[in-house]
Amino acid sequence: MKNRYVIDHLFSRKVLVVIIVFLSLATCTLLAQQYFSLTMSSVMTTDEFNSSGIGTLSKSQRAALDLWLNRYTAHVIKVITKASVSNDSASGSRCSPAIETTISGEFNGWDGETIFKLSNGQIWQQTEYNYMYSYAYMPEVTIYPTSSGCRMKVEDEEDTILVKRLK
Question: What pLDDT score was predicted for residue 90?
Fold first, then answer.
């Protein structure tokens, strides 16, 4: 019975994540379409506007160009949002929300491609070159998202390291 509860709980969390991602993409697109009222004259300097020839266009031509600018901006936001979501879920490197656990057994620092086995059953690997030696037995770790990927902080250590989830 307990295993069924765990499976149902994990499944419902995954469904919730999919719904949140979908709603955020839809909301972002709607916001871009409704609230962007960009014009070429508002995003260009006067020199750029005049030297590009946009100033010589008719009102209807400028309106068409402004409409394109807003559609393009909405498209860029949609692509960036999708890329952010796929980077977070690509190759199992999810670390949001932050993961707090301990290293299973001895910790000897890191030296290039160190693999970390965690007490929660996850396995993570160092993804940036860095060397640091330190010994601890079952130290607490926190793995948290950053703009450059998942970063691991080991208790009592100042340095952090970028990691990716293997399992």
Answer: 45
When pLDDT is averaged across residues 65-73 and rounded to a whole number, the result is 83
Burial of 60-83, coded b for 16+ CB within 10 Å and e otherwise, reads: eebeeebeebbeeebeebeeebee
Model pTM score: 0.47
| Structure tokens belonging to residue 65 | 């160009």
**Cα 38 from chain centre:** 27
Residue ending a domain, among 68, 91, 114, is 91
91, 109, 143: which is the final residue of a domain?
A: 91
Q: Following DSSP, what letter does each residue of 112-150 receive, concatenated?
A: SS-EEEBTTS-EEEE-S---B---EES-EEEEEEETTEE
Q: According to the model, what pLDDT value does residue 88 have? A: 47
Residues 23 and 53: their CA atoms lie apart, in Å, by 40
